[in-house]
Amino acid sequence: MPSAAPWSPSPGTGLWDYSGSGAPEEDDEPCASGELPHARAFVPALYLAAFALGVLGNGLVVRLLAWRRGPRRLADTFVLHLAAADLGLVLTLPLWAAAAARDGSWPFGPALCKLSCFALAASRCAGALLLAGLAADRYLAVARPLRARLLRSPRCARALCRGAWAAAVLAGVPALVSRDLEPLPGAPGSQCGERPSDALQVLGLLLLLLTCALPLGATLFCYCRLARRLRRPPRLGRVPRAPLRLICAVEGAFVGSWLPFGTLRAVLHLARLGALPLPCPLLQALRWGLTLATCLAFGHSCANPLIYLLLDRSFRARAWRLAHGLSSASSRSGDPSADARGLAENGVRALTASPAPAGP
C-alpha cells in the first residue's frame, strides 16, 4: 500500500526529499516510497473489520442512548455524540479499503475523495474535543461538585457538544481544499492525496496541534488533577470509582490509538518542510509506521462500544434488554399463532387479576 493512501505527507509525487532544503539536489538520489510488505492484503481486511464492528457497536450505542426513556446521565450526552463521530469515520472505511486493495488507486472520483477526507478530519477533531469535555466534566464532578453545578447542567453539555461539532466542521474544511486526485507514482490511475505544497504542510501541522495535541493535553491535565484529588480523603462521601474507570479506559484507548498517528504525521510534516532532515531509510520506516498507525487509529472507532460492554453494568443491562426484546419480536413474527397465544394469555391474566364483581 503506498504511503499516500489515505494519509500521505506529500502525495502526487513518487520523489521524497527531506534533505533540509525542500527540493532535491541534482546529485542527490530521491527517496522513493516503497510498499509495506503484505499491506495490500491486511490493510483492507483491518479497515473492513473496523467498519463492521464500528457500525454495529456505535449504532447500538446511539440506539440505546438516543431513545432512552427518562433522564439521561450527563456523561451519556458526550458518549452519544462520541458514538456519532465514530460512525462518521467508519462509514468511510470501505472506500479506503477498496483503494488500499488497489495499491492506492482511488476509483470513486474527486467528490468522494474530498468528502471522505473531510469526514475523517471532522470525526477525529470531534472525538478529541468531546473526550476533552468528558474529562473536564469528570474533574468538575469530583473536585468541584458544588461550585460546578451550573456548568454541569444538561443545557451546558449540549452546548459544549454543539461547539465541538462546529469546531470539527471548521477543522475539516481544509481537507476539501487540499485533498484531490493526484497521479499515482509509478502506476496508472490516481490516488486520493494531498497536494504537494509547503503552505498546506504548515496548515496540516497547525491543525494537528489545534485538533489533536491541545485536546489531548487538556484531557491529560484534567485526569492528572483528578488522580491527585482522589488521593485525598473524601469530603462529601466516597467517590464512585466505576464511572471513573470506564471513562479513563475510553480516554486511554483514544490516546493510545491516535497519539502514534498524530506524532508520525507531525514528524513527516516537519520533514517535508525541511525543518527536520532525515535519512532515507528512516523516512521509509516512518512511512510504514504511519500506515500501521492509521490502521490503529481507524480501529479505535470500534473500541468504545466494547469498553462500555465490559465496564458499564448499566449499558450491558440495556443492551441485553434490547437484544431480548428483538429476539422476542422476531420469534413472534415468525410464528403466526404467537400473536393469538399472546392475546389469549393476556386475557387470562387480565381476568384472573381483575376483582370479582360486587354482589347485588
UniProtKB/TrEMBL annotation:
Q: Where, by residue number, does the polypeptide cross the bilayer?
A: 45-66, 78-98, 118-140, 160-179, 199-223, 244-268, 288-311
GO BP terms in the entry:
calcium-mediated signaling; cell chemotaxis; immune response; positive regulation of cytosolic calcium ion concentration
Q: Where is this region: Disordered?
A: 1-32
User: Gene of origin?
Assistant: GPR25
What's this protein's name?
Probable G-protein coupled receptor 25
> To which protein family does this belong?
Belongs to the G-protein coupled receptor 1 family.
Cellular location(s): Membrane
* Function in brief: Orphan receptor.
Q: InterPro entries this protein is in? A: CCR1-9-like, GPCR_Rhodpsn, GPCR_Rhodpsn_7TM
Keywords attached to this Swiss-Prot or TrEMBL record, sorted alphabetically, are: G-protein coupled receptor, Membrane, Receptor, Transducer, Transmembrane, Transmembrane helix
All residue ranges annotated as the G-protein coupled receptors family 1 profile domain in the record: 57-308
Q: Which GO terms describe its molecular function?
A: C-C chemokine binding; C-C chemokine receptor activity
How this chain sits in the membrane, per its record, is: Multi-pass membrane protein
A cellular component annotation (GO) from this entry: external side of plasma membrane
Tell me what organism the protein belongs to. Hipposideros armiger
